[in-house]
């Protein structure tokens, strides 16, 4: 949204997050560039694959081997680096710290501490499952995403991470600006039906968002949870020129190009 200069006024967006807006071609170009080089200023502005690979390698290793090690008084950063290397394969799924502890192997408490350090040093961020009972949400496994997503594979995982990054930026800023108490979650029930993202406003469901790399048909879980929560819903796709409203009972689902809709976020 910042690069495209299309940010909607906050009230306009929250009053109708499903509003249709004219398509802008330059937004698609920006989105592809972000996917290739990430949103960090140096690699994005350089727009060079070789530069990005060198920068990305230096970025993570400097933080892991120097900053985090010095901050946490680690004697060795080997296990921390190994933990970070395992994270790309866990994106998009609830993250089991117990499983990670077995894979390295280290203690559960060490994994918990290191993940918190990754968040503090802006290597990763986590989003919790939605639950009206705060205690249940705290105890359940969270999903993790990376700030530097340019090298992620496959493309579907990178796409979900990019959507998560944009929503995380928006909800965090809205809360920090005093516009309300906003938080980002995912939705999952006992039958393992899931919607990728839910934005909560003042601890109530506000908007459902599903990220689908190419599928334009609204998913069954998205329809189901929309009818349960009775909130607007958006299905974002990684295609150009997609924008239509689809009925779901008394509600509407906006199926739209991710680049166009996300570029409007306040």
Give your account of this protein's structure.
By secondary structure, this protein is of the alpha/beta class. Helix content is about 45%, strand content about 20%. The chain contains 11 helices and 8 strands. Strands 3-4-5-6-8-7 form a 6-stranded mixed beta sheet, sandwiched between helices. Helix 6 (about 95-105) packs across helix 7 (about 110-120). The longest helix has 24 residues, at about 50-70. The model has no long low-confidence stretch (mean pLDDT about 95).
SSE blueprint:
Elements: H1 10-15, H2 25-37, H3 41-46, H4 49-72, H5 78-86, H6 97-103, H7 108-120, E1 124-127, H8 134-139, E2 143-146, H9 155-176, E3 182-188, E4 194-201, E5 204-212, H10 220-229, E6 233-237, E7 243-248, E8 251-257, H11 258-262
Parallel strand pairs: 5-6, 6-8
Antiparallel strand pairs: 1-2, 3-4, 4-5, 7-8
Helix pairs in contact: 6-7
* Arithmetic mean of pLDDT: 93
Number of strands: 8
> Which radius of gyration do the C-alpha atoms yield?
19 Å
Low confidence ranges: none
What portion of the residues fall into strands of 2 or more residues? 15-25%
Quaternary state of this entry equals: single chain
- Euclidean distance between termini CA atoms: 7 Å
What's the helix-strand series? HHHHHHHEHEHEEEHEEEH
The helix count comes to 11
Q: Taking strands numbered 1, 2, ... along the chain, how are they ordered across the largest sheet?
A: 3-4-5-6-8-7
Based on CA inertia axes, which overall geometry fits?
A: globular
Helix content: 40-55%
Q: Give the structural class.
A: alpha/beta
Largest sheet: 6 strands, mixed
